[in-house]
Design brief:
This protein folds into two domains: about 35 residues; about 200 residues, 3-Layer(aba) Sandwich (Rossmann fold), CATH 3.40.50. It is built from eight helices and ten strands. The N terminus is likely disordered. By secondary structure, the chain is of the alpha/beta class. The termini are far apart. The chain has a seven-stranded mixed sheet, with helices on both faces. About 35% of the residues lie in helices and about 20% in strands.
Length: about 240
């Protein structure tokens, strides 16, 4: 009996020791792998991993439809790591916040035009800044849903002009979230002159749970492939950067 008890105690000691070591390892692993995301669906962590996997170096971002300087931002994580770039956001409410929280970034309070038009109606959805848009059809949908929508005039600048004027070296990360006009802006980008390594674009159709297949079709035609994303956004990588 004593022998059995000793064996049982030995097994118990080993089991408790293994459990304790497992707990320590689990806690250490959890602490070491804990990562902070500021993006809506952790897209920033996926982009960061792509940059690491492909050895792309420092991030230079162009964030079109930047929104809040921190919350749901696809680029703030990189700012906290020392990167800087250009934020395009027509909503004037964010101006003072950008100045306080992201002073290294350049902020353009404009819309991105896709024609020679130099200004356009900017539809402001009261109480829902993330739904503000230059797309009248989208704004009308919000109005039909009972939201209060007002209109202000906003200057427009072409994406190629934005890059030419504000970057010495073109951005290697492009983030676009502009409520229905994402494809039009991508189509206006001169990919021969400015070819971002990584593009994160909202592919979810506004006010639906469907994605817009035209965005992927277009970017595939420009030799990009989807390499990650979320329910809302898709992340594309330039094919030539991926080792065969």
């Amino acid at each position: 009996m004593r022998a059995r008890s000793a064996i049982a105690l030995a097994f118990l000691a080993v089991a408790l020791g293994a459990y304790a070591l497992g707990r320590v390892h689990q806690e250490r692993l959890t602490a070491d792998s804990a990562k902070t995301s500021y993006a809506e669906k952790a897209e920033d962590l996926i982009v960061a991993d792509i940059f690491w996997e492909l050895g792309l170096g420092e991030v230079r971002y162009l964030d079109i439809g930047a929104g809040d300087p921190v919350d749901a931002s696809n680029t703030y994580l990189f700012y906290t790591r020392g990167a800087q770039g250009v934020l395009v956001e027509p909503n004037p409410v964010f101006g003072p916040q950008y100045a306080a929280l992201r002073p290294r970034d350049k902020v353009l309070a404009v819309g991105v035009g896709v024609t020679d038009q130099r200004e356009a109606d900017y539809h402001v959805v009261e109480g829902h800044w993330a739904l503000n848009t230059f797309d009248k059809d989208v704004a009308d949908e919000h109005a039909r849903a009972g939201m209060k929508v007002s209109v202000v005039k906003m200057p427009l600048v072409n994406i190629n002009e934005i890059i030419a004027r504000n970057f010495t070296t073109p951005p290697n990360f492009l983030s676009i979230d502009i409520e229905g006009l994402d494809l039009a802006v991508l189509e206006s980008l001169d990919f021969d002159r400015y070819r971002p390594a990584v593009i994160c674009v909202e592919t979810l159709v506004v006010d639906t749970q469907r994605t817009d297949p035209r965005i992927e079709t277009f970017l595939r035609s420009k030799n990009y492939s989807p390499r990650g994303g979320s329910f809302v956004n898709t992340i594309f990588v330039a094919n030539e950067l991926v080792k065969r």
